[in-house]
Amino acid sequence: MTFWFLFALLSFSSPSFGYDLVRDYSGPTFFDGWDFFGNWDNLTLGDVWWLNEADAFTQQLAYVNAAGNAILKVDNRSNVPFNEKRNTVRLESKDTYAVGSLWIIDLRHIPYGCSVWPAFWTVGPTWPDDGEIDIIEGINMMGYNQIALHSLPGCFKSDPPTQLGRTLVHDCSTPSGCTVQELQPNSFGPGFAAAGGGVWATQFDVSGIYMWFWSRPNVPASIIQSDTSSSIDLSQWGSPTASYPSNSCDITRFFSPQKLVLDITLCGVWAGEPKNYLPMCADQGPTKTCYADNVVGPGSPRYDNAYFEISYVRAYTTGGATPTSTRPGPVFVTGGSSTAMSNAGQSLSIGIGSQGTGGYYFAYWIMSAVAVSFATLSFDGSYSNWFMVDW
């Protein structure tokens, strides 16, 4: 049986297609889409216990406040004895998101303070084989957000001239990852809170990984006016803070489908290192060490600002990827060539997506004996393009 599909790609003036909402984490049901870690921090060796769901709710370290925003916080009520850890929370999304996804997080407050290490990031099934994307991360009294990718050797960060942030490290396989420093004001710490918070967006695309930050006064109208029934158009967002184009890092090779993670740890291998801790926090106590002068003892006022206040997290897709998929990853055919391909499977799903730096692609998954022929795949908007599926 043969099916013919005709697509007209006419007069696209926008560099990107709209993204459709697939998951909204907000309001009273915010926590329904997340798993609680329920263990000590054996990942970054922080001096915390990440509580399970029941204990986090009971101890009021995870809840929805009167404004309808989700709160994740460090325990600031307990007097922690020496050699014990302080309680906090780590969440991991139940859903997994493949290439073709867009994530937006609207935050009113980010945890900060000496010893505090918050993060919003993504991770694949096996680290570092499947990649990690650090969207929000900082330590102690840092005044700026730091973005990073982590990968196996072979993925590097280039420096597109339109990137707004400052590249600090280019090799994504180093312990720090390939990092970018946010240069816009009020991206972290007290300044972020004083400005009323802000919004981050991350495009996880075959053409690269791109991240934007806007302080509250500068959030684009397309995001402010969006709701759970809206699609999102990236065309008016301007240049991203961080650009990781695929010309120096093959995204589909180094990054598998990702889960979203929100966590707060204390001290650990970054915030607790003397070279990172002492320049900002040497005045916190007599021992000049992160754990003894912060984690031990009373939690207030030391950890009164160690909390996330989250208006929402939203996940979008172009149609070329869906959350929690057990299908093999997408195969992308980029514009500018005529290609014939065949593969094997049981079903076929086809979508159109956009490249973060301009241009378009078709994405498809094949799971049974299906032959797909592409012809005249020109993506400049001036052709009607077709492909044939021979089932």
Please state the average pLDDT score. Answer: 83
Number of continuous helical runs: 7
Strand content: 35-45%
* Cα separation of the termini: 5 Å
Helix content: under 10%
- The best one-word shape is globular
Helix/strand structural class? mainly beta
Number of strands: 26
The profile of the biggest β sheet is: 8 strands, antiparallel
Q: Supply the CATH class of the largest domain.
A: Mainly Beta
- Low-pLDDT parts are 1-15, 325-391
Instruction: Identify the quaternary structure here.
Output: single chain
Count of the domains: 2
Rounded to an integer, what's the Rg over CA atoms?
A: 22 Å
Transmembrane segments: 359-379
Signal peptide: 1-18
InterPro entries: Beta-glucanase-like, ConA-like_dom_sf, Glycosyl_Hydrlase_16
GO biological process, one term: glucan catabolic process
Keywords for this entry:
2 domains, 8-stranded antiparallel sheet, disordered C terminus, 10% helix, mainly beta, 7 helices, disordered N terminus, Jelly Rolls, 391 residues
Brief account:
The protein is mostly beta strands.
Commentary on this structure:
- With 391 residues, the chain is mostly beta strands.
- It is built from seven helices and 26 strands.
- It folds into two domains: 2-13 and 326-390, no CATH class; 20-317, Jelly Rolls (Sandwich), CATH 2.60.120.200.
- A hairpin with an 8-residue loop joins strand 11 and strand 12.
- The longest helix has 8 residues, at 274-281.
- Residues 1-15 and 325-391 have low confidence and may be disordered.
